[in-house]
Amino acid sequence: MFTKRISAYCNLFQQLKARFSATKMAKSKFEYVRTYESEDYLLPNCWIVVRIDGKAFHKFSKKHDFEKPNDPRALHLMNRAASSVLNEYKDILIAYGQSDEYSFVFRKDTTLYNRRKTKITTYINSLFSASYVYFWREYFKDAKLKYPPCFDSRVILYPTDETLRDYLSWRQADCHINNLYNTTFWALVLKGGLTNAEAEQRLCGTLSSDKNEILFSEFQTNYNNEPQMYKKGTILLKKKIMHPFKNDKHKIVVLPLHEDLIQDDFWVKNSELLKLKSGELYSFTDSEKIPDLVLSQLHNLSVAEKDTGKQ
């Protein structure tokens, strides 16, 4: 028995020695450069937000003849690219987008890539950028992509539910401020005949009420009637829905919403977000259209089924 035990230890020693030797031989004299690498782990138990922002998109939108003040093609393309990110990364609970930016909120308890900052931000940014290019023709049809778009990205940590809500509220408030300004600015230019410099001077120092009055009195435009997507931006959530054409099946989809997320109502209605729990089945009302973004995620649908469904 003692001899067998000694033999077993010897065999184990030889195996470990062989493995160590193989590992040692696999390295080169240049391997030391890896010691210069540093890992940037994000703090645990914090909400992780990755915000992507277009680089020089004023120039990009002008070069590609985006409609002013809002181009629905560009906004829907941003939403489509963002939905690709949500479908790929299950730990993203909510995303918010407006203009040329998108914010992705990860579960505070995520262990994705061991919470390495560079891994998370580079993968999210590259997938979003690639999706933007990939789906370009679906939204801009024959408008050729003249040069590659570019996005930067950053990671921000929010330690509490309150600070996360304040961050998203800040982005939605920013959407309203910018859209009201742009809507009034381009009305003065495109309908009022002012130059860009004259329109900018006209709006200098004005309040929201002043801009609303300009739109209503000079251009017969009630800002309240503008599309919600322009005023509120887009909220993307993962929701379980009843398949519209296969009533016995459920499917998790990325659902676009254009709602006020600053007030408590949104967070009460979607209480699963902060509680990190699964939400209840989401049901579309009879008068509610199923968004094209949702339809694009329902596989194996024939053209006939799409044409006869809610659109």
UniProtKB/TrEMBL annotation:
All residue ranges annotated as the Thg1 C-terminal domain in the record: 163-243
Domain tRNAHis guanylyltransferase catalytic: 30-159
Required cofactor(s): Mg(2+)
Signal peptide stretch: none
InterPro entries to which the protein is assigned, alphabetical: Thg1_C_dom, tRNAHis_GuaTrfase_cat, tRNAHis_GuaTrfase_Thg1, tRNAHis_GuaTrfase_Thg1_sf
Enzyme Commission numbers on file: 2.7.7.79
UniProt catalytic activity: a 5'-end ribonucleotide-tRNA(His) + GTP + ATP + H2O = a 5'-end phospho-guanosine-ribonucleotide-tRNA(His) + AMP + 2 diphosphate + H(+)
Residue spans crossing the bilayer: none
Superkingdom, taxonomy of origin: Eukaryota
Keyword tRNA processing: yes
Alphabetic keyword roster: GTP-binding, Magnesium, Metal-binding, Nucleotide-binding, Nucleotidyltransferase, Transferase, tRNA processing
A GO MF term: magnesium ion binding
Pfam families in alphabetical order: Thg1 (PF04446), Thg1C (PF14413)
A biological process from GO: tRNA modification
Similarity comment: Belongs to the tRNA(His) guanylyltransferase family.
Quaternary structure and interacting proteins, as annotated: Homotetramer. Interacts with MFN1 and MFN2; functions as a guanyl-nucleotide exchange factor/GEF for MFN2 and also probably MFN1.
Function: Adds a GMP to the 5'-end of tRNA(His) after transcription and RNase P cleavage. This step is essential for proper recognition of the tRNA and for the fidelity of protein synthesis. Also functions as a guanyl-nucleotide exchange factor/GEF for the MFN1 and MFN2 mitofusins thereby regulating mitochondrial fusion. By regulating both mitochondrial dynamics and bioenergetic function, it contributes to cell survival following oxidative stress.
Protein name per UniProt: Probable tRNA(His) guanylyltransferase
Species lineage: Eukaryota, Metazoa, Ecdysozoa, Arthropoda, Hexapoda
